[in-house]
Design a protein that fits this description.
Blueprint lengths: L1 H7 L9 E5 L8 E5 L7 H16 L10 H16 L19 H4 L7
Antiparallel strand pairs: 1-2
Length: 114
Amino acid sequence: MERILSSKIVNSESSAPKYFLYKDHKKEESWRPVVSGCSSNTLGLSNMLSDIVESLCGTIAEPYEVISSEGLLSRCEKFNEWASVQEFDWRERYMLLGSDVCALFPSLSKEKPA
């Protein structure tokens, strides 16, 4: 119990640090903003949301999870090959869910984030 409480309660008043990573896969020069909440005052909220999302995902019998565009494309290609030989309408059993945020941190204002 003490370990769980300590992961939810943060005594830091520091805001999350922001830094930029170079996007080497883009043709034009581009940077990805990264905000790390590991040592900030939002760590508790981040941990609670993570627990909720992980619990929800745990209810899916056979989940597929990807963390890159390449991984998603590979899974879609494999699924399409499999679905092309099935004798039932796969749309009744399967769905594709996706989540991506474009320019989240650059679009937040310093004064009042939405």
